[in-house]
Amino acid sequence: MLKLIPMVLDIKNVETKALKEISQAKSNKSLESLRIKYLGRKSGVLPEITRQIPKLPKEQRNGVGTEINNLRAKLESLLTQKTNPEIATKETGFDITTPGKQIDTGSVHPITTVMDTVKEIFHSLGFSWIDGPEVELDAYNFQKLNMPPNHPARDVQQTYYIDRELLLRTHTSSMQVRYMENHKPPIRVLFPGRCYRRDMPDSTHLPSFYQIEGLLVDDVSKMSDLVGTLDYFAKAFFGKNTKTRVYGHHFAYTEPSIEMEVYYPEKGWLEVLGAGMVNPIVLKNGHIDPNKFRGWAFGMGSDRLALLKYGIGDIRILYNNDIRFLNQF
Ligand code: DAH
Q1: 275 lines ligand 1 (CB under 6 A)
Q2: 197 lines ligand 1 (CB under 6 A)
Q3: pLDDT of 99 over the 90 cut
């Protein structure tokens, strides 16, 4: 049994004794028994002294805990240092020097970075964003966007049909009417997400890709706001000296419709998105009165933006899951 008084002196004695025994220990086994003798939870010397502390007269308690902790740390590190790893392997069948497993945290995929950047830019203009279904009704993907069955615009957006009414959405424009049906203007929202088309894979096409759609509906909204906003976006995304131009186009769900191009010194003008004033028929399909409200919308391919921004020549590289490529971003 340990003497209660004087405690600090006891600790000093314990230390001297323990250090001597450790230095004389010749095998891992004897080191392990010293560990149990001094540090073992149940009957080790140090835990035993710790248990005595509350019984000490108050004036002797001060600093005893710290002394014990310091000694414990010292003994632990000595015991670990002296334990021979090779013998330990033999005794335990486990190589304690094997480095731990490296857990690879990976990096953010360039398309995700692009989507986040676009969201961030439009967020600063008051746009929120919301996901939508990738398995979509033909009604939202085509019909309510003014593309009835057999409309020629469907030809360039062929897709996989689950049944006569259900398909894999060909564009994020499918969210326009879905959203309008449940929200009143003013509306400022992005619809990012995955889309599908029956396209042969090549350097610029894949059967699955990402888009970001934007929709604004308000009592005043003009084509000039749309063009100004898209130009602002292009400069924020590609750099402040970026030049843009728009020209007339045709989409069934916008009237009038435009496309926007961005100027690349090495490559010339490259198309980055389609847009336009929301067709009054589409507003009506979304239960919004076209005599009171007007809107504009745009849609762009996130993969395309990633290719342009990072100077990648082939869209397929983005999906090869080659860590060496993806880690560059
Ligand atoms: N949905 C079109 C596409 O996938 C892009 C687009 C064009 C979206 C015009 C729009 C728009 O919102 O107004 O090619």
Answers
A1: yes
A2: no
A3: no
Q: Which atom number of ligand 1 is nearest to the Cα of residue 195?
A: 4
Q: What span, in angstroms and rounded, lies between the C-alpha atoms of 18 and 12?
A: 10
Q: How far is the centre of ligand 1, averaged over its atoms, from the C-alpha of 162 (Å)?
A: 23
The one-letter amino acid code at 122 reads F
The sign of the torsion formed by the CA atoms of 73, 75, 76, 81 equals positive
Distance CA 46, CA 94 (A): 29
| Mutation choice for ligand 1 from 251, 282, 303, CB with most ligand atoms inside 8 A | 251
Please write the tens of the pLDDT for every residue from 118-152: 999 999 999 999 999 999 999 999 999 999 999 99
Q: Say if strands 187-196 and 208-218 run parallel, antiparallel, or are unpaired.
A: antiparallel
In 138-231, DSSP assigns E strands to 166-168, 187-196, 208-218
For residue 58, count CB atoms less than 10 angstroms from its CB and return exposed for 0-12, middle for 13-18, buried for 19 or more: exposed
pLDDT in tens, 255-311: 999 999 999 888 899 999 999 999 999 999 999 999 999 999 999 999 999 999 999
> Alpha-carbon distance 130 to 154, whole Å?
25
pLDDT at 1 exceeding the cut of 50: no
Q: What angle do CA 300, 304, 305 make, to 5 degrees?
A: 75
| 295 within ligand 1 shell (Cβ under 6 A) | no
Summarize pLDDT for 6-43 with one digit per residue, the tens: 566 688 889 999 999 998 888 888 889 999 999 998 88
The encoded tokens of residue 95 equal 């190589």
Sheet with 244-251, side-by-side order of all strands? 128-129, 187-196, 208-218, 294-301, 268-278, 254-264, 244-251
What length does the chain have? 329
Ligand 1 pocket member 254 (CB < 6 A) = yes
Which tokens in the block code for residue 69?
A: 């902790």
Q: Decide whether any atom of ligand 1 lies within 6 Å of the 274 Cβ.
A: yes
Q: Are 133 and 169 a contacting pair, CB within 8 Å? A: yes
